[in-house]
Amino acid sequence: MSDATLHDHDARLSACPACDAAPLAQRIAAGGGGQEDIVLSLPTIHCATCITDVERVLNRHPGVRDARVNLTLRRVTVDAPGMSAEELIPVVEGIGYEAHELDPAALSASAADRQGRDILMRIGVAGFAMMNIMILSVAVWSGAEDATRDMFHWISGAIALPTVAFAGQPFFASAWRALRHGRLGMDVPISLALVLASAISVYETVQSGHHAYFDAAVMLCFFLLIGRYLDYRTRAVARSAAEELTALEVPRAFRVTTAGDEPVPVVELVPGDLIRIRPGARIPADGEIAEGSSEIDRSLLTGESIPVPARPGVALSAGEVNLTGPLVMRVTAAGRDSSLARLTALVAAAESARGHYTGLADRASRLYSPLVHLLAFCSFLGWYFATHDLRLAVNVAAAVLIITCPCALGLAVPAVVTAASGRLFRRGMLIKDGTALERLAEVDAVVFDKTGTLTMGVPQLVSLDPIPAEARPVALALSQGSGHPLSQALAQALREAGTEPAPLSDLREVPGYGIAGIWQGREVRLGRADWLGARHGEATLSASWLSLGDEGGQGAPIRLEFSDRLRPGAEACVARILGSGRRVMLLSGDAAPVVQDLAQRLGIAEWRAGVTPVEKAEALRDLRQQGLHPLMVGDGLNDTAALTEAHVSISPASALDAARTASDMVLMGSDLAPVAEGLELARSARARIKENFAISLVYNIVAVPIAIAGFATPLMAALAMSLSSISVTLNALRLR
User: Where exactly are the transmembrane stretches of this chain (predicted)?
Assistant: First the structure.
């Protein structure tokens, strides 16, 4: 059994049922899954009930051997030999959950959380060794002399040397990499202090000296590892957003040939190929409709919440979803040339650029490390030329290195970020990136997406009043027979009003138009206004029509209006941000009237409608070129490039996997208020970080002269260093 498989088994034993940390997707990555496994993204699941519902309906479906949901990644992996994702997606969507196919081959092997466990293991070893060495040190401090003292020193060395070699490995490896590239990182003085303290202690033990500093070396290692772990915990163990986007690309298509439909990998498609797109399937490439009529869900790419009609000649983009009717499309671009692939490349480039941000601690260490080495070296030279005592000069130099060791500096940022992260988490916001809080404090402009961010992204019937009581059962029977988002919203409103469906016959959906059926010998329809005989100009973007009449559909059409409900806390959040003096913008792929109405409701003066994903990213880039530090809040695939282009980004937990991965922070609940709170807390956190740097500076101003003067042994230096670290941590905890 492989290590990854063993870890997967351990995770199953330790995880709660609602957080199953060992999905089949990890078995695939570890080499334990079969090639028949299907991975579906489930962006709307959020709790244990969702897991149970999805797994139950899939496991009951004929041909499915096993289905496991991963709530963290919002995915389900299905073991169903011989089946396709197109067969399983309607099963999941039939119980109300959105589903998209992911390409398992595009998902990189998910390494287990080895780094965190590795650091914790080293902390445990260092802590256990430190306790044992301190017991021996107490005996020496209490007056043990000669052979007894030497024996305790040898025992301490036997414990300390392998401990420092093992627990200090992260610092040694980092320092070696820095030196190989000709630079001095923060880990170079740390490593030098560990090596010097250990070497001096061995020398003192061999010479039967009165003092050995094994306890100082191990204690130093222990506290520094705690700082390293706090820093690690603030960073996301998540895949690149570009990888998530790649996985969203449809892995295969059905090419139309003289012999019939032929399944082929999308990478083999060339311009001019004809491919068949079934209802409910995602568009695998860019192209133009050659045959058929349907409705297209473009929300992944544009954020437009209302499906658009599609007929021959209409251009389609990879990543869009065909809703109602079968289509034949002529390919114009596929694979790396598709719009989705170009968006992926844009995201990857933006991620790389944003990764160049340097945190406050990193900037401070660039000046700090050379200064520490210079002080230690000057102390060594000064004491050696003054006394010609090499042993004393090395001891003083080691004490200077230890007492100036950037432990407090290393803890200054992660301690504050950890405290602030805990407070924000309790308010419903999860920080994924270690530098996100620092970047959030610099924000002076906030850009919001509309659908799914400021609004819930789900159509809602404005009122049932236009529908006569006798027509409501017919309306329910029609609406629940269609998968159109507006039909589903109408059906939900009617069911909540206690309506029972009327018995209809010959129920059929007309792709691109609506749904029709026979009631009491007459044809009734629910669908597009022009299909129902509405007069020219009566239709609006946010309206659907219901007609009860004869076979010609000549009855008076009833106008039903839908709206997108505001996300809880949206008004208060925007008002609070505007009140802080920050600039607020609204960028949306929706139509201008809808965007303008929302902007006016929220008091947002700057807004743009019909914005493409590339234009959103360009808008964020323009803000940065103006010297601003924009925060982007978005949830869709169309926002992913903008999320990575922004100075810092936030997405709701209901967002698409790629958007959540691209963002620095995730809103765990539906309330938008934590965004405004996070902006204020970030500024408070930055103030605490600067206070911690001040504490570290004052400590060094007081302690360094004492060490240079020769009044501090390496042990005293380690104790002083620990005191400074505790002070920094306590100051950070004030944020809680």
Answer: 119-142, 154-176, 188-206, 212-230, 367-386, 392-420, 693-709
